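Researcher: Let's do a round of design. I'm pasting the structure tokens now; please hold your answer until I've finished.
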């Protein structure tokens, strides 16, 4: 098919050309005296992205799921109670992992399209006077439904209850895109990955751990080997890894961190909100369709899950967009399979780039029998972007 594929899934995201070029390297000895220079660039850059001065970053050759496992196994013991809410596919998968690892999960089911139920969390923490709950799990951005949650609110619930439980946060699809504050929110384990806001191919799990969490390593009784943070701490101290690292991805990470520094994290966060508002204008005002997120307070600035009309299968829209217009849209998962299609709007992206997503999705919807006004989506998005000042990250590029 002529032309390039337009990638608008909420991860993996588009990899900037300069990051791609940085990864085209000859292999080198990861035990050489030169190799530690890489980690000297990576660790401080990641701390800035996590907004932490006290946290310790780790990089694993894995996906974010690997870092879920690292967070759990390095701090908890079999049978420990953890509090978690299920409101989308990825919050569900974290709960599933905890159960399979032998933890006692206190589950709160929330409506898909909403986020973390803060009142329910607060109630459970207040009632837990014996402090049996050892960790609270929070999915910052649920990509399955296009929902972002209030992590500061979770920290407040813990503080109000004077509860010592650890705070674990999945920020896989929010880090480097939506405001995330490790220190300010008192996060103990923040889990992310390379293929979203960090603008890299999949393959690196990224974790940030608090001093409080790291102190628990010697007490935690869960079995671990590959994801043992003790091995990482020992090797990272000299700039090395306890096993063969993903060398090209590390060089790519250095370059992506340079790009983040150049644009400025605050500018990047503002850019994502500005672009997301345009997409939401396309969906709500242009196409006159709905979002899976039930209210504006839940709207994600990295992905929008568009609800298709009754009688239409969202998978058909996705298939048509890909086969006919060479555009990749995200599928509905689990409870929302067939009911939505998702537009990822994160990473290296601007207004014109997103116009391709909106135009392609619109043509695919029309082909599948969804009666939207041709041109309405791009028109509504363009009207928003032209009427509002662009963040500095979109100027002079």
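Researcher: That's everything. Go ahead.
Model: Designed sequence:
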């Amino acid at each position: 098919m002529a032309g390039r594929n337009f990638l608008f899934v909420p991860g993996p995201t588009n990899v900037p050309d300069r990051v791609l070029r940085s990864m085209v390297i000859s292999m080198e000895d990861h035990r050489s005296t030169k190799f530690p220079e890489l980690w000297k660039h990576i660790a401080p850059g990641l701390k800035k992205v996590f907004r932490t001065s006290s946290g310790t970053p780790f990089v694993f050759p894995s996906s974010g799921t690997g870092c879920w496992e690292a967070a759990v196994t390095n701090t908890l013991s079999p049978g420990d109670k953890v509090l978690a809410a299920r409101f989308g596919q990825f919050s569900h998968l974290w709960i599933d992992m905890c159960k399979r690892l032998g933890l006692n999960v206190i589950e709160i089911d929330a409506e898909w399209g909403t986020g973390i139920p803060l009142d329910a969390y607060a109630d459970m923490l207040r009632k837990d006077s014996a402090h049996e709950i050892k960790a609270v799990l929070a999915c910052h951005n649920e990509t399955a439904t296009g929902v972002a949650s209030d992590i500061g609110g979770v920290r407040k619930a813990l503080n109000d209850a004077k509860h010592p439980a650890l705070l674990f946060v999945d920020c896989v699809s929010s880090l480097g895109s939506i405001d995330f504050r490790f220190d300010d929110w008192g996060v103990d384990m923040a889990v992310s990955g390379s293929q979203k806001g960090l603008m890299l191919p999949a393959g690196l799990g990224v974790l940030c751990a608090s001093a409080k969490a790291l102190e628990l390593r010697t007490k935690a009784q869960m079995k671990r080997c590959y994801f043992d943070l003790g091995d990482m701490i020992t090797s990272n101290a000299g700039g090395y890894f306890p096993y063969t690292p993903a060398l090209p991805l590390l060089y790519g990470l250095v370059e992506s961190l340079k790009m983040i520094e150049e644009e400025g994290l605050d500018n990047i966060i503002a850019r994502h909100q500005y672009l997301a508002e345009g997409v939401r204008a396309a969906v709500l005002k242009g196409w006159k369709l709905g979002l899976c997120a039930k209210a504006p307070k839940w709207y994600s600035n990295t992905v929008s899950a568009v609800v298709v009309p009754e009688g239409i299968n969202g998978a058909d829209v996705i298939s048509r967009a890909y086969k006919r217009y060479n555009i990749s849209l995200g599928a509905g998962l689990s409870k929302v399979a067939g009911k939505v299609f998702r537009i990822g709007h994160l990473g290296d992206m601007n207004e014109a780039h997103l116009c391709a997503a909106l135009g392609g999705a619109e043509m695919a919807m029309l082909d599948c029998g969804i009666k939207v006004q041709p041109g309405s989506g791009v028109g509504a998005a363009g009207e928003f972007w032209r009427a509002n000042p662009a963040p500095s990250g979109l100027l002079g590029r």
